[in-house]
Specification:
Biased composition (Basic and acidic residues): 287-306
Organism: Botrimarina colliarenosi
Distance between the termini: 127 Å
Protein name: Secreted protein
Helix content: 55-70%
Signal peptide: 1-39
Keywords: Signal
């Protein structure tokens, strides 16, 4: 009996070894096949965007234009190597800018000192013009020149450029940064379905933009974004009519928000006064938080600016009082931003003033 039991145990061990051996072979084969499958998928993905009709036509147009320039064959060969080496078409913007500067000296000055709109001579590039404009727009967006980026991409179609995803991405970011959320949402909707077309960093930016666009808009954050947009324009030395119109729009919105806050505060004060023991005693800290219009004489009237007075025409001391009056009526989170915004406007106005007034004004 004991001998039979030992034989059965030995047979069971042999069966288990055979089963585990088959499992190990299966797992090993799967592990070996997985990298190969991934490599095949990656290779297929790389081929897919290079073989897309839109990219094929844009690529041929770029190569043909480069080939027509001085040392054209070498330039076209470099472009072909860049296409072969890059994992996604959106990365071709930089090599295209480099090759364009080598092909045409006018691009050197254009890239060193970009203009806000495409020059007329770009039409000589033929079918390569849309892709070159997209490459320049990519550099403009990187320099925070979003209005110029939109101007350079205006009228471009996705089937004309080397990267439709980059075109929609730049438009989405530029519209968002210039506080045109409806157009930003439209640009995101036009993005190709391929998640690999832009890469992880730009995909993360798009996801963040989409989350912001889907959230319920609040008045103060929108005004804050408009302030940042004006500050960006002034930092780029763009104090033109459009920037001034945006400044006035911000002031109008701030005035409306202030009036709303004051109305709410008046209602709260009336309710507090009607309650037993309500009302604030003289010298009460609550007096410091009252709207500036409810304070005594001598306080600056904020509506002067909103009614049409130019910020730059106000004396520095009055600007400071105006800034204090405005920032008192907003939550602490936004006071620093508002103060920075008005400091930017004040610095811009001070820089524009002559050192000495004209003789006629003395």
């Amino acid at each position: 009996m004991e001998f039979a039991r030992l034989q059965d145990a030995s047979a069971r061990r042999r069966r288990r070894r055979r089963i585990w051996g088959r499992v190990a072979v299966t797992l090993f084969a799967a592990a070996m096949a997985c990298p190969a499958a991934l490599a095949v998928d990656k290779s297929a993905s790389l081929r897919s965007w290079r073989e897309a009709p839109g990219f094929v036509s844009a690529n041929e147009a770029i190569a043909a234009w480069l080939a027509q320039q001085h040392r054209g064959q070498a330039l076209a060969a470099r472009w072909n190597r860049a296409v072969a080496a890059t994992p996604r078409p959106s990365r071709l913007a930089e090599p295209l800018r480099t090759l364009a500067a080598q092909a045409d000296e006018r691009f050197v000055s254009l890239l060193n000192a970009p203009v806000d709109t495409p020059p007329v001579w770009l039409t000589s590039l033929g079918d390569a013009e849309p892709s070159v404009r997209l490459a320049v727009a990519d550099a403009l967006a990187a320099a925070d020149r979003y209005d110029a980026c939109l101007a350079w991409t205006e009228g471009l179609e996705q089937d004309q450029v080397f990267s439709p995803a980059l075109l929609s991405y730049l438009r989405a970011v530029a519209w968002r940064m210039t506080v045109d959320d409806d157009r930003a949402a439209e640009a995101i909707e036009r993005l190709p379905a391929d998640d690999e077309a832009l890469g992880p960093a730009r995909k993360w930016v798009l996801d963040a933009l989409q989350n912001e666009l889907e959230s319920k808009p609040q008045p103060m954050p929108i005004v804050a974004r408009k302030m940042r947009d004006v500050q960006r324009r002034l930092a780029l030395a763009e104090p033109g009519a459009e920037t001034q119109e945006r400044q006035q729009a911000i002031l109008d919105e701030l005035d409306k928000l202030i009036e709303k806050l004051e109305e709410q505060r008046k209602q709260q004060q009336q309710m507090a006064a009607a309650a037993p023991g309500g009302g604030a005693e003289p010298g009460d800290p609550a007096d410091e938080s009252r709207p500036s219009e409810l304070k005594g004489p001598g306080e600056v009237d904020r509506k002067r600016l909103v009614a049409g007075d130019a910020w730059g025409s106000l004396p520095p001391a009055e600007r400071e009082r105006l800034t204090q009056a405005i920032t008192r009526d907003f939550p602490p989170h936004y006071r620093g931003l508002i103060e920075d915004y008005f400091r930017t406007l004040a610095a811009e106005a001070d820089a524009a003033e002559p050192d000495d007034p004209p003789a006629a004004d003395r």
